[in-house]
## 1
Amino acid sequence: DTGVSQNPRHKITKRGQNVTFRCDPISEHNRLYWYRQTLGQGPEFLTYFQNEAQLEKSRLLSDRFSAERPKGSFSTLEIQRTEQGDSAMYLCASSFMRGGNLVTEAFFGQGTRLTVV
Amino acid sequence: QKEVEQDPGPLSVPEGAIVSLNCTYSNSAFQYFMWYRQYSRKGPELLMYTYSSGNKEDGRFTAQVDKSSKYISLFIRDSQPSDSATYLCAMILNTNAGKSTFGDGTTLTVKP
């Protein structure tokens, strides 16, 4: 296993277009997280999944954003009607939880850098 | 005011120096504290992970947590040019919590 994989690495889109990002977590990890990071800032939490269930969403995740993890493996993050303010690095992380206890710490992917023009 | 505050730097030190990086936080309920290293245009990489107050050492890195002061530190001994990166502190409430709350990072440059 080579770690958390995110695709694409870079995406340039025109304002108003829809974009979708994919995250493939470490294979045995049951938790998957999405964060957003802008220049000079730390990652900001967007949402996370335990297996296929989406357990928490940040208020940052407006109704233009939707995330899925249909089979508890890979996840997608879709942004509809993109705005220039959506330009950021979108980071995915995964971890393994057992019995409510974190067995392994969150491992991050390399991110998808979105530029909305 | 942010829950986690971190001096953005930039911090520049000569090779071999001891580096001290710090974060303060306002939520006393945080239980787990992490330090990540992030190279430019890359994802964060976990360096250290500590629970509650105390020290933890791993090679050239030492993490300290002082819950009474709501203050955490990362010390890097014998700093190397390869340590040049942005260092992010992060915290979670408990192991069942979903999200980490991050500081905005301190940019470190180690000059040869």
Note: Chain B is about 0% helix and 55% strand.
## 2
Amino acid sequence: NAGVTQTPKFQVLKTGQSMTLQCAQDMNHEYMSWYRQDPGMGLRLIHYSVGAGITDQGEVPNGYNVSRSTTEDFPLRLLSAAPSQTSVYFCASRLGTQLKPTQSGYGYTFGSGTRLTVV
Amino acid sequence: AQSVTQPDIHITVSEGASLELRCNYSYGATPYLFWYVQSPGQGLQLLLKYFSGDTLVQGIKGFEAEFKRSQSSFNLRKPSVHWSDAAEYFCAVGESGNTPLVFGKGTRLSVIA
């Protein structure tokens, strides 16, 4: 299993450009989410999805769009990049939203991150 | 709404000394609690987790954490710190179902000789 794969690992954008951060998992996880990490702020939730066709906003959704057309993929789109979106982005997934933590297989898997710089 | 507080932004300890990183949560029911570690430029690695049962949980790399419901705390401990433990540590709270994982802002650990 590859786990959670994020691409690209590094990206530099100019203000106003658009791009898509890719996140793919091969574990048949229902739950997927995007976080951004900034110094002193920890990880803040951007968007999450509990299954194909279902997405919801997190703490800091402005400037980002997501969709979930398949179980495997959960891309994060920046429509018009701003310097405030310079950050490290992490994708995380989890098996079955109805699975209890005491059940086998429960646990979050994180991707290795995408470092984005907007100039 | 769930929230997680890590009161210490930065802690410095001597190698071989004991360590305790604090974590307090705000949550109505019994939370599911996690500690993650992040080395510079790396992703997140799960150290340990608490769901139910014994309130003292053991993790990897010699870490342990104790859940104290009365204090809404889940502090991370290690009896003897090694230089390789220098990293950032995150406490997180979640649950089953559709509620996302919520992270604290992290505690940066420096280890000196």
Note: The mean pLDDT of chain B is 91.
## 3
Amino acid sequence: DAKTTQPTSMDCAEGRAANLPCNHSTISGNEYVYWYRQIHSQGPQYIIHGLKNNETNEMASLIITEDRKSSTLILPHATLRDTAVYYCIVRSGAGNNRKLIWGLGTSLAVNP
Amino acid sequence: NAGVTQTPKFQVLKTGQSMTLQCAQDMNHEYMSWYRQDPGMGLRLIHYSVGAGITDQGEVPNGYNVSRSTTEDFPLRLLSAAPSQTSVYFCASSLTSGPYNEQFFGPGTRLTVL
């Protein structure tokens, strides 16, 4: 199963872009990259996912390198409410095995 | 829609007691799952279900039972609680088990076993 590596923590100034990197060098061709975040004491919240192409939604953009070995989540204009732990996850398994392998994520602090 | 709801929010048990953590969703989702989250560790999958009547084990199933008699409900049972089961438990659901479906998480149940 593909694993992910993320920095333990990052800081970002309010109003600036937050760029959160993720390494998934062992990802296989049919595995998706997911991003979730968890605000303190709450359940995780889905942000975005992608396979090969870059993706954008109302929350963030996901940039996946051409070799798919790494990706970057971009929060274009970070606010204090974006302070959370961000998880980069690679979906593993096939058939009915739909588990996502969660690491420890990146703790993002958005500072005023 | 209420989304994914979990009860109770907090629970304290003594070793050996049994209890059921409740999880319900009103989005007609096929896929439901239970995770536990411990300090210093990522979320770990306990059990999951791809539809009513179908359940399977995740990464850490020992000490837990599940059933899925309806699409809406996916209770997690602890038959004989142990201190090692002290954790925060999250229930999640998604439309299907396919790779393009986001999971919706409940608010969690914080369980302490003394």
Note: Chain B has no helices and eleven strands.
## 4
Amino acid sequence: GQQVQQSPASLVLQEGENAELQCNFSTSLNSMQWFYQRPGGSLVSLFYNPSGTKHSGRLTSTTVIKERRSSLHISSSQTTDSGTYLCALAPNYNVLYFGSGTKLTVEP
Amino acid sequence: EAAVTQSPRNKVTVTGGNVTLSCRQTNSHNYMYWYRQDTGHGLRLIHYSYGAGNLQIGDVPDGYKATRTTQEDFFLLLELASPSQTSLYFCASRDRGKQNTLYFGAGTRLSVL
């Protein structure tokens, strides 16, 4: 909840543009994850990334613990990337706390 | 891939009604969670459990009970449903260990009239 702040709340891109989504947190963390929520509501895990940089196709996640932030970069966006992106952190290993999400719309 | 199945997928009830949401996971994960999702709030934790018979309180537990009857099954109970509980509910599971991710069910959309 309030421990995790995501920005921007919404973003509209033209296909082919890049996106940078931010997640800032106010507590220490043991785990940081990024999820994608399809327009129909289902959730899928994109990254488990407690620190450093990870890549998966056109997606890159970077977590900098000292700065209490994590980012998700989407390159060459496609209309199928539209949906909501959620970050979640775990101050301990038991529970994940979610941000409010960034709603991404990619227009053709 | 872990499987988490929620039922029902959609539910409509009236104020004061009694509702049970079911969740089953088939990978013998230790942890199971119930979240609700509302516009502007992201996912908020209601209850969670780390094993059969165990229950832990989350951030928004008021008006909800939960029970973990087996390793696989976790139920969320609304005994006197109110319109404020109209929401999208997600169940999730996770295995023990810091590296393991959260696996979600498809969600249950509940409307309390």
Note: The interface with chain A takes residues 31, 33, 35, 40-45, 48, 50, 56, 58-59, 88, 90, 97-99, 101-104, 106-107, 109 of chain B (CB under 8 Å).
